Amino acid sequence: MNSSQAERLQWITLTVLGLVAGLAIALPLGVPIFAIAGAMVGTPIVLSIVGLSLGTAQWPIIRRHLSSSWWWVVVSALGMAVGLTAGVILVEQVGRALLGGPVNFRMLGVAARAVSFATIGAMAGGSLGLAQWLVLRRHTHNCKHWIRVNAWGLGAGLACSSFLADALVPRPGSLASAVILLVIGSAVAGACTSKTLVELFPPSTQHISATSR
Question: How many domains would you assign to the chain?
Fold first, then answer.
């Protein structure tokens, strides 16, 4: 396995671990946070934990290529908080307009559920990619497609994993269904962004020295 393949595999693995761990931490913390701050303030705070976990997980690889790499963690938290919050609000509002009441993902049809997750994933990925691009653009040229790749990767990943979860698990919203959704969705997102990352920082590129970090 060459260095670029090894880095891509590491990136995919860390992306999966970061997103899964972030949600696993954010969900139980959401109860006391919502009780104290309310849903409007608490939602972006809770969802920022997902981005913080993702950015932290990806940081060991990012630090090989970027100086001041700690910014990656900060912008990942902010970008994911904004994107996930906006995506959830959009799906909720559209759902209310179409259904006349709150959206219950477990009660949606297979296609509607996949479209909902795709929308949330695309908005979260686009916002995350935009935030991370603000750091990337200082170190590499022609990296605007990082935004598009993140939006496409997470949106398509959650849509495909939603279809797969519905095909394999008879009960939507169960633990098994959630695991499939998160693991497969984040793996697809990681695979898409890993390819772009290697293109932006090929193995032949001189890595930054440890003293510059």
Answer: 1
